[in-house]
Amino acid sequence: MERPCVRVPREAGERTRETLAAADLVDEAHEIVVDDGDIYLPVTDADAAEREGYDVVYRDVPTHDTQRTPADLLGFDPSYERLGDVAILDEDDPDRARRIADAILDSDLPVRAVLDRASKVKGDLRVRDWTVLAAEDRDGRPPTELVHREYGFDYLLDLSTVYFSPRLATERHRVTEQTAEDERAVDMFAGVGPFVIPMAARGATVVGVDLNPTAIEFLRENAHRNGVEERVTAIQGDVRDVAADHADAADRIVMNLPHSADDFLDAAATLAGDDCVLHYYDIQHEDDPFGPGERAIREAATGYDVDVETRHVVRSYAPHELNVCLDVRLSR
Length: 332
Prior knowledge:
The chain has helices spanning 13-22, 46-51, 70-74, 94-106, 169-176, 196-201, 213-225, 239-242, 265-271, 291-300; strands spanning 2-9, 33-35, 38-42, 56-60, 81-83, 86-89, 113-117, 130-135, 145-150, 153-158, 184-187, 205-210, 232-236, 250-255, 272-285, 305-318, 321-331. It is of the alpha/beta class. The protein has a seven-stranded mixed sheet, sandwiched between helices. Strands 2-3-1-4 form a four-stranded antiparallel sheet. A hairpin with a 2-residue loop joins β9 and β10. The relative contact order is 0.08.
């Protein structure tokens, strides 16, 4: 049976596969085919792959040998996320959660631990509680620690001590691909570095600030892991307290703290150079998702011309609420 495949030169195959995997487009049920110097990577959504700029063709590709899945063991298809070698559930029924966890570990999935969300994200450090449902002690790591691979970069993190959302991978890629070599960038809420690392890899000099000291430790480690430590400065603290030390320096600023980013706009205005692109994240009602953020930016950015270059919906956040991004150019 013919399947949609992304066709690239063989030497670009692994890099392309990683990019497609980060965008959740890899068709795991079918095998990759090499033919006459090209590699054909089966994808789940031809339209989405074309929107990403790939050459999509249809051809016969063999199916993978059947693997034992959690659904095979349970008799139903459970809902879970994978982050590195950890599976994440969001189950209210403890007995059902443990059945699913046992099935995941007994399946052929490359998973060593299964966690259940035990609280919402809370506090200034944006962490949540977890219930460890099942775990295999393979290398002495805590069950909440993992290495996540995204668009070719590795991120070491511990879900019990830092905030991280794999659902924003495509959005992070959209922003960081705009970064130019020799830019000076600031991520005001950097976490473990999913904006900082790719921007530095593109040749930018990047300052990452976070209130969470553990996140900053992971950021430094991840900069080293990905070979960009010489272009990354990691600072633990409230960005409002350190903005003056980097005043008028930023060509690009990321503000991914959507519930309260408006409280930090004065610091962003302090950081911004003469010509600066601001990526401002917000959560607002669907009736006016962009207006409140745009008005707040214009009010804070005195002394700048404010040009909204992109109004972008990242995802639905809750009923009638949208997570959005404003890409704004500030020109002094």
